[in-house]
Amino acid sequence: MKPILLIAIVSGTLCAVRPAQTPITWRSKGLRVSTSDNVIYLEQAVEIKHGKTSVRADSGRIYFDPSDKRLHREAITRVVLHGNVRFSLGGERFSGRGEHAELLPQESITLSGQVTAHRGDSTIRGTRVIYYLNTGWIKVSDAQGELRSERTHSKSSR
Amino acid sequence: MTQLYRLLLVLFCVASFFLLRYVLSRPASPLPQDSHGMFVTHGDGVTWYRYRDGRVVQRLSAARATLFFAMAAQQASGTFPDFGAQPARVELDGAVQLAAQGHVLRTQRATLAEGIVSSAAAVEIVGRGVHLRGQDGFSYTLADGKLSLLGEVEGEAYPADRNR
Fold first, then answer.
1. This prediction's pTM
2. CA gap B129, A69 in Å, rounded
3. Nearest to residue A18, comparing CAs of A94, A73, A70, A95?
4. Closest by alpha carbon to B40, among B55, B73, B62?
5. What are the Cα distances from residue B124, in Å, to A34, B42, B64, B137, B146?
6. Are A142 and A148 in contact (CB under 8 A)?
7. Residue A5 φ/ψ, nearest 5 degrees
């Protein structure tokens, strides 16, 4: 009886424990809040961090869902950044830069403009690069210049 | 004796009825039913309310307050009026707190003038899962809730759960 009870307690505890959500943190020089459209405007020297994801830019906007029914609080739905965007993902050794970026938390980050992205020894250039945070897949749109992997061979694409 | 008890019981019920009717007929709070802000003084401090449809939607309070009226000086006779003329400027000092829309803003000093609360002191804003910190001051417009934080600003909030 006692082992069964112990197993039941442990199982129930494991089921009840959910992995804690990681908050998104930001820093900037100056901030404005518009409660009417649920947006925070970050004015200068913006830095966004979420787990291993880090993005810097000249300015940005954080969009909120004002009434996340599951969390019972305001929750970030997306982050849009403009100007001199630099992105890095620790552990994956993936980094990139572009003119604009859109971060969908826990889903993807899209770099646009004149994008250059690096993953390991590979370099990707294009006008739009999407990195899927869950799978690690990279999607390049309107690829220009070259897709190069220095470990094997060079390949040009247009 | 039993008749006396019955008489007392009847009198008690009648008195209770009239007392209850009197209590219920009084307004729950002395707040008028429009959207003007109003000051209520307590001790050295002050609380400013903005209300809409009889409900408080913004509340600004501080431990100490100095009210500047754009009129002839009023004789302080121990208490300031709770209603009536609004001050042109209010200097707030100590435990300044502004509550609105589920968020609470805290700072040590602030000024309320022309419908704008402003300060050069550090500020912290918490509420509804959002946390903001600014070191170089802020301004908050009471009419539309627009907030600006100056200088170095930090913040955090949680992402929406996309697995719903």
1. 0.72
2. 13
3. A70
4. B62
5. 17, 24, 19, 10, 16
6. no
7. -65, -40
A101 burial level (CB within 10 Å; 0-12, 13-18, 19+): buried
Interchain proximity A31–B159, CB inside 8 Å: no
Q: A68, B152: Cβ pair inside 8 Å?
A: no
Q: Interior CA angle at B38 toward B32 and B44, to 5°?
A: 135
Distance between CA atoms of B108 and B91, rounded to whole angstroms? Answer: 11
Q: Is B153's Cβ below 8 Å from some Cβ in A? A: yes
Alpha carbon distance A129, B40 (integer Å): 57
Do A106 and B151 make contact, defined as CB atoms within 8 angstroms? Answer: no
- Give the pair of three-digit tokens for residue B121: 């002191």
Cβ burial, residue B134 (10 Å; 0-12/13-18/19+): buried
Residue located via tokens 């121990």: B78
Residue B71 phi, psi dihedral angles, 5° rounding:
-160, 180
pLDDT tens for the 164 residues of chain B, in order: 788 889 999 998 898 888 887 666 554 444 333 445 566 666 667 787 777 777 778 888 888 888 787 654 444 444 444 444 667 788 889 999 999 888 899 999 999 888 899 999 999 999 888 999 999 999 999 888 899 999 999 999 999 876 54
Q: DSSP per residue over B91-141, as a string? A: EEEEEEEEEETTEEEEEEEEEEETTEEEESS-EEEEETTEEEEESS-EEEE
Q: Assess contact for A137 and A129: CB atoms under 8 A.
A: no
CA distance A14 to A3: 16
Nearest CB neighbour to A30, from listed B144, B153, B162: B153
CB-count burial class (<10 Å; 0-12, 13-18, 19+) for A73 = middle
CB contact under 8 A, A25 and B155: yes
CA–chain centroid gap for B47, Å, is: 5
B148 has a chain A CB within 8 A of its CB: yes
Q: Is the ipTM beyond the 0.85 threshold?
A: no
